[in-house]
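Recall the central idea of this unit: under ordinary conditions, the amino acid sequence of a chain determines the structure it adopts. In this exercise we apply that idea directly, starting from the sequence alone.
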Amino acid sequence: MDLDGRGWTRLVSQQRVSYVKTSKGIHIYLLIKSEKTPPNAVLFYQGKRIGDFLSKGKQVVGVGSTHKTGITYELVKRGKWFWKLESMEELGGKLGKYEIELR
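Accordingly, the structure predicted from this sequence is:
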């Protein structure tokens, strides 16, 4: 999950999950139990696009990589590597607490 903006670290701090600090925001690695790969989605906060849920056929820049701006993607250890969820519905419910909508 790719979230743009600096305010989203509060989301991961409450979930006690590690994340990757990027040039625009954060990446959170998810493990979702599902029989099929979840679809890609766009993340919105108060009607404004704030990021993406990347799954099938998509990828994010890896930890330690350097963005074209010169910023290195840095792992911030705050707990487990992956945010583990049972379903996309559970993810939607947890994001909803922060007024984040998956579309």
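The chain has a mean pLDDT of 88.
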